[in-house]
Amino acid sequence: MKRISKLIFLLLVAPVLMSAQTSAPGDPQVGLEKLAALLKQGAVAKVKVLHVHDSMLTRVAVSKDALRSIATSTQDFSDHIAEKFGSLLSSASVKTETHTPDLRWGVFFYDPQGQEIGSLFVDQFGQHGYLNDQTVSFQTGTGHNLAKRLHKITGIRN
Q: Read out DSSP for the chain?
């Protein structure tokens, strides 16, 4: 049984993981779709969410590195990941941006071996950030923006 599950992983999930890890910077929408597909396939084993309180005042915009070191809240999720985080990416789209955002959220996606397979960073308004190291703007259509979705998923209040 163990061999069969390893074989299924190698044939179905591993190619998607490898393409997500080796994808060169290009169209960020492709990166978002790959990340959504990995969530849907169950290839994401853990999600780590970092948050800096929205009302925290800083002299300069909070960068990705600063967010990692000054996060006021850190949560790890390993159960029901597709259900919890599928809504985060549903109906979302991204486009390349040059705006330097003031980040408040960091979300890291890990495979079963603990390798990071994707990340996204979002400002307090859920409109600007990074997707896999590309500066982007996020659009969510008529739904809540990404920051509101993250507040709902994590239960963190402003």
A: -HHHHHHHIIIIIHHHHHHHHHPPS--HHHHHHHHHHHHHHT---EEEEEE--TT---SS---HHHHHHH-SEEEEE-SSHHHHHHHHHTT-EEEE------EEEEEEEE-TTS-EEEEEEEETTSSEEEETTEEEEEE-TTS--HHHHHHHHH----
User: Positive or negative CA dihedral for 67, 106, 62, 34?
Assistant: positive
Successive 10-residue mean pLDDT values, the chain, 158 residues: 47 46 68 94 96 86 93 95 90 91 96 96 94 94 86 88
pTM summary value: 0.81
Determine phi and psi for 136, rounding to 5 degrees. Answer: -140, 165
